[in-house]
């Protein structure tokens, strides 16, 4: 099976900023800030060959921070020729130290580590500091410091502790010891804007509209007369990816949506309706719930549940995809390559963080996730991968979706895990337990929406615990399950804080669940943040 990638951004913008990643935890943030100016930015590992950097025709280069010292044995290094390309360059933290070190300046461990909020005084009015105050509120995190700038550079700013910025205006080369991409650096966004728009002269022409237009054209040109298939999850990413592809090739895109038996109440019907009526997608809906639930029978181990659901999904998806592609082949309208083999396309909603992750200096260069979904398709079926969102962050996906006219209801859905309610039923997953949890979860969702909290909360849902306790209803003794309510605030799901839901909302949820859901007689609220907890219970 062959997988190939399309490049979506080639003609999107004439003004790309290349960010070289030296391993900082904030590198993605630099990329996002720049994109907020409607300028396209790419993150490459610092080890990227010069040719790869040149291939982006960058308007400028940013060297990110990183945890190392330039004197460490295994300190991350970039090709020093980068500094001779004649391109505007901004070094940030480690990027400043590496740049100064390579160009012959002096870098030394500082007496005192600078960490946290600091003030720096601007000593040179240059283009980087245009319009900024003489004293900047910045956020620092560094051990080494530049003691002496390289030849041609002068000191542009200092903190009471150390030299904080150097510049060679004539070459458009600047460096700052602090992190302008972090919100704590008050004038950080303005400084990055000065560099990107002022020094690099990048054009602010990378918008959702330009992205959509160029992506649709690229897909149309590449797919030609071919067909594409797309697995819908009901979530934002796969929906936006499908709409982009369908805009390019119309109903030669077939979407597959599988009921795995652990969807939320009414979700199988609702997603189909949305995708067909609101997004005008060609959807094949497969009810495989019995198959999934029977495989899950007797299983209590969380990892086993995930594995079973993943494996079954691949089997069902592959069967359906093969059926669709064979039917199209029989009608004679599937494209063939030079060898006569079928060429079909598989659409995946892969996002930029996954792409960066798999090629970063930190990350293992593991195979991209999407391969998992194509595991069992016949060898002669040459599937090529279309990943129209592989250059985008999550919030950009939502902006593209809005530009495509997709309804807010689809774009603002809270994340929902692939293994669905199975990881929210502690212990064995049975059809009865799924039905109980669906009913409780529907109440949690409805009350969150009624209170106007749905959009401000990252995820809110019910969990079914296999713990039975004694209760009393009317004159009757009850002995039934416990329901936990989970609601968290988060930016990206990596960390989360439990949400302080108003007591009134909790009161209504609890009373409605106990009164309306047969099988639950006790409700508890989960007040665990992540870490140390996880968002899902399993
Ligand atoms: P945890 O529970 O690890 O979840 O704190 C973090 C985020 O990831 C979602 N999640 C998943 N999403 N497949 C998915 O597509 C999965 O197997 C999966 N497990 C967790 C979870 O809902 C939260 O947003």
- The CATH class of the largest domain, by name, is Alpha Beta
Specify Rg, calculated over alpha carbons.
27 Å
Shape: globular
Q: What is the level-2 CATH architecture name of the largest domain?
A: 3-Layer(aba) Sandwich
Number of helices: 14
Number of strands: 18
Q: Provide the domain count.
A: 3
Summarize the structure.
The protein is α/β, with parallel strands linked by helices.
Please tell me about this protein's structure:
The chain has 538 residues and is α/β, with parallel strands linked by helices. The protein has helices spanning 27-36, 50-55, 94-102, 188-199, 208-223, 236-249, 267-278, 289-296, 302-330, 352-359, 394-403, 408-411, 431-450, 503-516; strands at 16-21, 41-45, 58-63, 89-92, 106-122, 135-148, 154-158, 163-168, 173-176, 227-232, 253-259, 283-287, 343-347, 382-386, 459-473, 476-489, 497-498, 520-525. It is built from 14 helices and 18 strands. It has a nine-stranded mixed β-sheet, with helices on both faces. α7 links the parallel β11 (253-259) and β12. α5 (208-223) packs across α6 (236-249) and α6 packs across α11. It binds xanthosine-5'-monophosphate (XMP). The site of xanthosine-5'-monophosphate (XMP) has 11 residues, from loops.
